[in-house]
Each structure stands twice: as C-alpha cells, then as structure tokens.
Design goal:
Elements lengths: L2 H9 L6 H13 L3 H14 L4 H14 L2 H14 L4 H14 L4 H10 L4 H13 L3 H14 L4 H13 L6 H4 L2 H6 L1 H13 L3 H15 L3 H13 L3 H8 L8 H13 L3 H8 L12 H10 L4 H7 L5 E4 L1 H4 L2 H11 L11 E6 L10 H20 L19 E15 L9 E8 L14 E3 L13 E3 L5 E6 L4 E3 L7 E8 L9
Antiparallel strand pairs: 1-7, 2-3, 3-9, 4-7, 4-9, 5-6, 5-8
C-alpha cells in the first residue's frame, strides 16, 4: 500500500460503522500507517466509548507512533470494558513494560487468560528481568523450555538472558541434543546463537552435524560458506557459495558479498550487488556495496556516502538540561552484567526495550530534544536522489524504531557495524571518561565509514570526538564503530529513525 492509497482509505473511512471501522483500522496498521489512523482512532474511542475494540485500535496506533501515554490509557480502557480478553490484557502489559511501568502483575493476568501463549510468557520474563528479578526470569524460561524444548523463541530469549547475566548462554540449549538433531528450526537457532557468541568452531561443528542429519540443504550450504569465510577458509567458502544461485535472495547475497570483500574481490561483490539494490530490503546490501565501490575507486561511493551533510553533530545539552540526572537514571537501568549476544557492544552493557518510550519526565524531555535535532538534520539533508537509501523523496513521518543506552568500561568499544533496518542512526553522549593521555588521541572516538574487519585499508570518512551533550546523526547503512579507551565510563544513548514509507515511484 502506498501513502496515497492509505490517504484514500482515510478519506472514505467508515466512521459510523464500528465493525468496518475496526477492520479498516487494522488494515492501515498492517500497512504501517499508524500516524494516519491515530486521530481517527481517538475520535472512534470517544464515539464508541463502550466498544473495547475502538480503545484497542487507539492503543495500537498510539504505540506504533511512539506515544506511550495514549497507548497505556487506551489499553487500560479496553481491559476495563472487556477484562476477559487475553489479547487486550497482553497489549496493556506490553505497553506498561515499554513505558517503564511495573508490568509483572499485568503479564501474570494475561498469562492466566492465555496460559499457552508463548509471547505472553516471553513478556513476563522480560518484565521480571527489567524489575531486577533476573534469576526468576531465567528460571521461568528454563522451566518452560525444559517442558517444551522445541519452543525456539523461548530458547533464544533464555540464551540471551543467560548471556547478559554472565552465564554460559548456550549451556541449556546444548543439553537438548536429541531435539536439536530432530528440529531444523532449533538447529538453525543454535547455529545463529553460536555465531552471536563468536564461537565459530561450535557453529561449524553444528553445521556439519546438521548436514549429516538433514542432507545438504540450501540454508546449511549458505551457513557453512558464511562460517568458513568468517574462519578465513576462503577456498572452502567459495566451494559452498558456488552451489547456490545467490542473486535471488537478499540475505544470502549479503553473506556472499561479505565473503567476497573479505577475500579481496570487490569487483565480484559489486557485480553481485548492483543489480539487486533497488529491491525490497536492499538496505542489507548497501553497506557492502559502499565498501566494494571504495575499494574499486568507483566514484559512485561519493554519490552514496560522500556528501558531508549526511553526517551531522548537534549539541543539545542546554536544550535538554540535567545531564547528570540522566546519567544517574541510566545507570539504574543497566541491570545486565555482560554485553548482549547479538549487538556490537564489547566490554559493556546495553539496556533492553525501547528507551525513549519510557514515560518518566527525564526521557520525555530527552525524546523531545533528540527529535528536534533529527528534524533539523533532515531539513539540511541533500535533495531527493532516486534509488538512494538515505536521500528519500518522502521524509515524513519521523518515528523512532528503537532506542537504547550503552555503558562501556575499560577497553570497551563497538565493533564496526550497520543498522540496516533503520533510516538514520545516532550516538548521544551522556557521560565520558577522562580525556586520554595515551599516544592514540582517538581513544573512545566514533569512526564513521570504517570496517576494519573486512576492508582494513579504508580510512574512516570521519572521526568524531565524543562530547557530553553531543548528538551525532548519520545514515543507518553507514559503517560505524568506536575506538577502545583505557579507563573510566563511557555512557551513551542511541536510537534509529525508521525509514518513512515511499510511494512506488519514490
């Protein structure tokens, strides 16, 4: 659905028929146009105040737009009118958790209404974890996965929670060897988690065992090639990648392009990727194409990432106010003991959940200050460029798709990475260690446009010195990482701005 099609639906929205209104609203939500639905849903919830569906619709639209206050109120009203509905109870619990409110009892209520719903149990574990009851969260997931070992979502959450609390993340899942051998889904999860835990040998051995159990299936061939490449076994990786047509699947193509760049074959990478960009989900490909073009001295990299306006720095300390108070509150939210498995953090911790959905005054003020800077940044971006992943035709609405805080300690850093699901990404500095006195004056700095693992010969586009109260904005498809620092604490807030929907032509 294009934005124009969505607006046409809005223009003839069936506001007098609650059944039709609800189904039409759900259609707009599924098409990702919550900002168009929100004002309509607000009126519907007043006009049909005793219809719980209208309050549920309002809550879903508000939540998607990032308005936790409206979402909480709407879901609360829906549950008051229809307290026996499990979906509404779960929605209320989820909104409370995202807002930073106590949510354990709400998830327990939802679980009573839907005792077999895995997503509710996952939410309960998350609520326990967020409220400082990590051992109970882990015990809950252990108990359920012991009874249902093929529940892959629960196994994944359990591994992640164990890892964040400094426990061996794969220990419990590794004990389920019989189930692993029987389930493709569980085997694939175990391989993925092994890669996240940076245990390439375990991942390689699991792939070999899976091939013996399931045969040489396409997904195993690609995973085997990827792992071999990561281990530096170039010839073996080539042999596996050559067994499959890699120009038909975006994820497979991105893994092969990564391998080709690692193998110092950027021309092959560019030839693979150039026909694929412009397709759906091509943001997974642009980071590798940027490396290939730069390694080839292809001037198109300038079109992609060379304009200095793509990177912006904004000092919002004065606009925001109490940086020390923010730092204190963030420290309280860092309940993990170790880095998350699936993120770029090394030597630090990262908060769970969407930080900027929290309703505490300090986070409301932070969100307003950050989004004002985002608006300023978007206004100065270069004009629309066809097929460009950042210079879009439609740049509204601007919604935060994810937000978190990272706390790094001695030698902590981010490995070079991208956020291929976003449009714009960020780093906002809240607390910093004392200035380095070592020979490397770039300790702790943000490096943009650098991927040392795959293309060590390429220098970063820009090195940014962190400053308390400074926000850095850049394209989500741009490689970025940080340099380690010798001592102290480095705390930041980061968020992604979601890519606005485009017309078919844009």
């Amino acid at each position: 659905m294009t934005r124009q099609e969505a607006m046409d639906i809005v223009s003839r929205f069936p506001k007098s028929d609650p059944d039709a209104a609800f189904s039409t609203g759900v259609r707009l939500l599924k098409a990702d146009f919550p900002e168009l639905l929100l004002p309509i849903a607000q009126k519907l919830s007043k006009n049909f105040a005793n219809d719980p569906r209208m309050h549920q619709l309002l809550g879903l639209a508000a939540r998607a737009c990032g308005d936790s206050d409206i979402a909480l109120s709407a879901f609360r009203d829906a549950c008051r009118i229809l307290p026996s509905n499990a979906l509404m109870a779960h929605s209320y619990a989820r909104a409370a958790l995202e807002a930073g409110n106590p949510a354990i009892s709400l998830f327990e209520r939802a679980s009573q209404l839907a005792p077999q719903d895995g997503t509710v149990l996952q939410g309960l574990a998350s609520a326990l974890f967020h409220e400082g009851r990590s051992s109970e969260a882990i015990a809950l997931l252990e108990r359920i996965t012991d009874a249902n070992p093929l529940w892959s979502e629960g196994q994944r959450d359990l591994a992640h929670l164990r890892g964040q609390m400094g426990l061996p993340p794969l220990h419990r899942l590794a004990q389920k060897s019989t189930e692993l051998r029987q389930s493709r889904e569980l085997t694939r999860l175990f391989i993925t988690l092994s890669l996240e835990a940076r245990d390439l040998e375990l991942a390689s051995a699991t792939v070999a065992e899976a091939a013996a159990n399931f045969g040489e299936e396409d997904w195993l061939v690609i995973l085997s090639g990827h792992i071999q490449s990561e281990l530096g076994w170039i010839a073996e990786a080539d042999a596996n990648f050559s067994k499959r047509n890699l120009a038909t699947n975006i994820e497979d193509a991105s893994l092969y392009a990564r391998h080709l760049i690692r193998a110092s074959r950027p021309r092959e990478a560019a030839s693979l990727l150039e026909p694929l960009v412009g397709m759906d989900r091509d943001r997974m490909l642009w980071p590798y194409l940027s490396l290939a073009w730069r390694l080839l001295n292809d001037e198109r990299w300038q079109w992609l990432e060379g304009d200095p306006r793509l990177i912006g720095t904004y000092n919002i300390a004065k606009k925001f106010g109490d940086m020390n108070g923010l730092a204190k509150r963030l420290r309280e939210l860092h309940v993990s003991k170790a880095e998350p498995l699936d993120q770029s953090v090394r030597g630090g911790t990262q908060t769970d959940g969407n930080l900027l959905l929290r309703t505490e005054p300090v986070f409301r003020r932070l969100r307003r200050a950050l989004m004002a800077a985002v608006d300023e940044h978007v206004r100065q971006l270069p004009a629309f460029q066809a097929n460009h992943p950042t210079l879009l035709k439609n740049r509204e609405p601007r919604r935060i798709s994810g937000s978190w805080s990272v706390r790094l300690s001695q030698t902590g850093h981010h490995v070079d990475h991208v956020h291929s699901q976003g449009w714009l990404s960020s780093a906002f500095y809240v607390a910093l260690p004392p200035k380095s006195t070592t020979a490397d004056q770039h300790d702790g700095w943000l490096a943009l446009g650098e991927c040392r693992e795959l293309a060590p010969s390429l220098a970063p586009y820009k090195l940014v010195e962190p400053k308390v109260g400074q926000l850095v904005l850049f394209p989500s498809t741009m490689w970025h990482g940080t340099r380690p620092f010798p001592s102290g604490e480095r705390m930041s807030v980061a968020f992604d701005v979601a890519r606005p929907r485009q017309s078919k032509a844009g």
